[in-house]
Write a structure and sequence with these properties.
5 helices; 15 strands
Length: 269
Amino acid sequence: MKHLALPLFIAATLAAPALAKDPAPAAPPRPPSPGAKHSPRAPLWSYDGDTGPTKWGEVDPKFRLCQTGKRQSPIDIDTQVAERGGLKPIMFNYAPGPLTLVNGNNTIQVNFTTSGGARLDGLEYKLVQMVFHAPSEEKIDGMATPMSVQLIHRAGDTRTAVVAIRFKLGKENKALKPIFERLPKTDSFNEQLESFNPAEILPVNPAYFTYMGSLTTPPCTEDVKWFVMRQTVEVSFRQLAMFKELYKSNARPAQPLNGRRVQEYVEEQ
C-alpha cells in the first residue's frame, strides 16, 4: 500500500495547477434589443396580469427603470403644447435589402443588416430592427390607431433612435404583404426574406413629433430619441386580424411626460 501512495500523490500534485487555473473572463453581455426574444432562463414579461406593464419593474431588478424612470415611452402627444420650429426633415436613406423574421417576445421582430438608415437630428443612424404593436403605443391628442410599427436605429453602441409610424384601417398595405404572409407560427420561427425596402412604408407627409424617451419594452432603457410621424398609413382589416391572431394586444400604456420637451416638424410651404 505504501508503494501505491507515492504515485497517487505525484499525480495529484501535477494536476493541481491545471485545476487551480482561473477561467478566462466572459465577454460582457450586449443590452437586449427592443422586442428581442428572451432566453428561457430569463424572467418573462407580458402585457397583462402579474407580468404586465405595471409589474415590469418588479419582474427583474434589471427592469427597475420601467417603474422608476422619468423619461419613459410611449407618451400621449398633445399637439397644443408641442413646440414648432428649429427642426429639419428626416433624411431617410433606406434601401432594399434582406431581412430576417423572428418571433420576438410578444411581437413579430424584423432584423435588418444592409437596408440603409436615416439622418436623425443631424446624426447618421443605421436601421437595425422593426417591431409591430397593436394598438399603437403612440397616441396623438389622446387617440391611438389600430397598429403601429417602430423602426429602431442605432449609431454606434450607445445611441438609439426610433421612428414610429401609425396605421389606420383601409386598403391592404402592399409593402407589408410579404411580411404578414410569413407571420411566425412557432416560438423558434426564423425566416429570411431576400429583399424588402423600408422606404415603401413611410408616409408621404414628412411631418413628425420628436422627444427624448425610452424603449417601450424591458429593460426600458432611456436616452432614446423618438420621432413619431404625424401622418398615418393604411393597413387592411385582414392584415390587422392576422397580426392580432398571434399577438392580441401588445401596447404599453402612455407614460407621464414629466416636463419633457416635445417638438414638431412641419414641412415649409
